[in-house]
Design brief:
Shape: elongated
Strand order of the largest sheet: 1-2-3-10-5-8
Number of strands: 10
Structural class: alpha+beta
Largest sheet: 6 strands, antiparallel
Radius of gyration: 21 Å
Distance between the termini: 29 Å
Helix content: 25-40%
């Protein structure tokens, strides 16, 4: 690593650790990286292996790229245009599902806007283990089912549920259902 990369890594590890109110001991226990190695990284006295850097990044729930990227180095803004046909995952007489997340980014969270016509549903197979979804109703009424659980939602309601088992969002009532879906991968 260059000196600037080593400095940036040390600063980022320290910053993220402090933001999560973690001690060096807690970060060591969570990451499997020794306390002394973490201390040396934060003080720019160590050049960690890729495996060590990966374990640290995973502990913070980010990629290695995000760990060593200088957040102040670029001021780019990614825009997802509403009329971009590439963001439309499904569009038929019953359902429109459009991503609000930049498509080119590797991510562990995705945002969607959903419109379902009366009686229509969005049925999903199980996602990766540990995946959770949050669905918030902005208009209409819905039923969300996952596993053996089912809940009715009205405008303004939000449900958080397991998505690593088959699950369904169904439009109830006479008006179209509109809402926002957040998918979180662990």
């Amino acid at each position: 690593m260059t000196d600037s990369t080593s400095r940036l890594l040390g600063e980022r590890v320290s910053q993220l650790r402090q933001l999560q109110s973690m001690t060096l001991e807690q970060l060591a226990a969570a990451s499997g990286v020794s306390r002394s190695m973490l201390s040396q990284i934060e003080r720019c006295k160590a050049n960690p292996t890729l495996a060590v850097t990966q374990r640290i990044a995973q502990t913070f729930g980010i990629s290695i790229g995000e760990l060593v990227d200088d957040p102040n180095a670029s001021a780019s803004i990614d825009v997802v245009r509403g009329d971009d046909p590439g963001t439309l995952f499904r569009a038929d007489s019953e359902c429109e599902l459009r991503t609000l997340s930049p498509l080119q980014l590797e991510k562990n969270i995705e945002f969607y806007v959903i419109t379902l016509q009366p009686g229509a549903e969005l049925a999903s197979a199980a996602h990766f283990e540990g995946t959770r979804e949050m669905f918030s109703v902005s208009q209409g009424a819905a039923t969300v089912s996952t596993g053996n659980s089912e809940v009715a939602l009205m405008t303004g309601d939000t449900a958080h549920y397991r998505a690593d088992i088959p699950h369904v969002i169904r439009c109830e009532g006479e008006e179209a259902l509109k809402g926002f879906l957040v998918v979180s991968y662990r």
